[in-house]
Every structure is written in structure tokens, then in C-alpha cells.
């Protein structure tokens, strides 16, 4: 069953539908333990996947100190809110109480951003834009709010073109997922390495799908899907 959850984690980590929301909901439906430690272990596989997929973007970031600084600025709000709301975050991972609301938030973000026609590229990334995108990303510390969906929406709503927004979202995933892993994982795990492998492979597949659909401006399909998941979570809760 944990391997199945690894597959779900990998597919939903980078698709803008909230992987953590799916893991928590499935854990409730299937009566499988989905505490923060298990979710973080799954994130290890997808962390490696996005690092491999974003190598080109990583090279760009390290070739420009100013752009690298923008990435760091975008990461700070998630770190701050993660520490500030740590107890509440743990609570949301052990209950589906807030899932319907958070899935709806993701749906609204995706639908709104799909209506925006951005033109700016990453060379135009300002520190203020980086900070605003960082706050969008910080909202995704809660299960049900998609990290990729929030960062994509934030960048697109600020006027960046879909491909640039996608690249920036990939880059931001690395320090945030890596930081969460370091913060929550104690360095040992009883979970099977196969779970890690499945999450990694599924993550790569999801990244390719997201790239194609984002460039073709099809995020609204994910918006509808998140509304459906909000309804499912509400039904399960009641």
C-alpha cells in the first residue's frame, strides 16, 4: 500500500493538485499511516526527480548571483511560515478537516492564472516579485494547496510567461522540498526503498506532463479536478 502511495505522491507532487492533500485523503480512506515523516520520505524521491529535470534551470541560477538571490528570497517565506505554524501543519497532516478549503484555494489559483497572458521572462525577475511568489509558495505548506500550482499562479499573475513561471517553480521546489526533508526527517526510515524509487519515476513523468500542459495553457483542467477533490474530501469528512 505504501508503494501505491509513493506512486500517487510522485504523480501529484508536480501536477498542481497537491500531493500532500492526496496522501492525507487516501490515508484516511485506506486507513494507512500518513504522518509527516512518511510524507517527507516520499518527498525524497520527488526531490531527486525535480533536481534531475531542472538541471538547466539550476545552471542558469548559479550563473547569475542576482537570480540566485531571487530564488533565496522566494524560499524565505516558506521557511518562516513552516517554523511559525509547525504545530498546526502537523495537525493538518493528521486530519482531513481542512482539505476541502485548501483544495478550493488551489482551484481558484489555477483558474485565475489560466486567464492571464504573461509576457515577462526570468531575466525580468525582481526581488519584490520573488518575495510575492515566495508568499504564494508559503501557502502550500498546508495539504490541499499545491506548491507547484501556487508558485505557477503567483508567477503568471505577476506577468511572467508560462514557461518561465514553470522553470522558476521547478527551481523553488528544490530548496523547499529539501529543507522540509532536513527539518522533519531524522535520517532513518523503516519505509521501503521501492517507495522512493516509485515516487522518483512517477515524479519525472508528472514533470513532463506539467510542462506540456502549462505551456499550452491547460491549467484550468487541474482547477476542475481540485474542485472535485474538495467535494470528495468534504464527503469523506461527513
Helix and strand arrangement:
Layout: H1 2-14, H2 19-30, H3 36-53, H4 55-63, H5 65-84, H6 86-93, H7 99-113, H8 127-138, H9 147-157, H10 162-184, H11 193-215, H12 219-237
Helix pairs in contact: 1-2, 1-3, 1-11, 3-10, 3-11, 4-5, 5-8, 5-10, 7-9, 7-12, 8-9, 9-10
Query: Distance N terminus to C terminus?
Result: 24 Å
Poorly predicted tracts of residues? none
Radius of gyration: 16 Å
| Helix proportion range | over 70%
Let me know the number of strands.
0
Task: List its traits.
238 residues; 12 helices; 77% helix; globular; single chain; 0% strand; mainly alpha
Question: If you had to describe this structure to a student in words, what would you say it looks like?
Answer:
This protein is an all-alpha fold. It has one domain (2-237). Helix content is 77%, strand content 0%. The chain has 12 helices and no strands. The longest helix is centred in the last third of the chain and has 23 residues, at 162-184. The protein is globular. The two termini are 24 Å apart.
Question: Quick gist of this model?
Answer:
With 238 residues, the chain is mainly α. It has helices at 2-14, 19-30, 36-53, 55-63, 65-84, 86-93, 99-113, 127-138, 147-157, 162-184, 193-215, 219-237.
Amino acid at each position: 500500500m505504501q508503494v501505491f502511495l509513493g506512486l500517487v505522491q510522485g504523480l501529484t507532487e508536480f501536477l498542481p493538485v497537491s500531493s500532500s492533500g492526496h496522501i492525507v485523503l487516501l490515508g484516511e480512506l485506506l486507513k494507512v499511516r500518513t504522518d509527516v515523516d512518511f510524507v517527507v520520505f516520499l518527498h525524497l524521491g520527488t526531490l531527486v526527480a525535480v533536481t534531475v529535470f531542472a538541471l538547466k534551470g539550476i545552471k542558469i541560477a548559479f550563473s547569475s548571483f542576482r537570480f540566485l538571490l531571487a530564488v533565496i528570497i522566494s524560499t524565505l517565506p516558506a521557511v518562516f511560515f513552516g517554523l511559525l505554524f509547525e504545530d498546526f501543519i502537523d495537525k493538518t497532516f493528521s486530519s482531513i478537516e481542512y482539505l476541502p478549503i485548501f483544495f478550493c484555494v488551489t482551484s481558484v489559483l489555477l483558474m485565475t492564472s489560466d486567464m492571464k497572458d504573461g509576457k515577462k521572462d526570468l531575466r525580468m525577475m525582481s526581488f519584490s516579485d520573488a518575495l510575492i511568489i515566495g508568499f504564494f509558495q508559503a501557502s502550500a505548506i498546508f495539504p490541499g494547496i499545491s506548491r507547484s500550482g501556487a508558485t505557477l499562479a503567483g508567477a503568471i499573475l505577476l506577468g511572467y510567461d508560462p514557461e518561465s513561471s514553470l522553470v522558476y517553480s521547478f527551481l523553488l521546489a528544490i530548496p523547499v522540498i529539501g529543507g522540509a526533508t532536513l527539518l522533519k526527517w531524522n535520517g532513518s526510515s523503516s519505509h521501503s526503498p521501492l517507495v522512493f524509487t516509485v515516487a522518483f519515476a512517477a515524479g519525472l513523468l508528472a514533470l513532463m506532463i506539467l510542462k506540456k500542459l502549462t505551456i499550452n495553457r491547460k491549467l484550468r483542467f487541474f482547477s476542475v479536478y481540485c474542485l472535485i477533490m474538495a467535494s470528495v474530501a468534504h464527503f469523506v469528512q461527513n
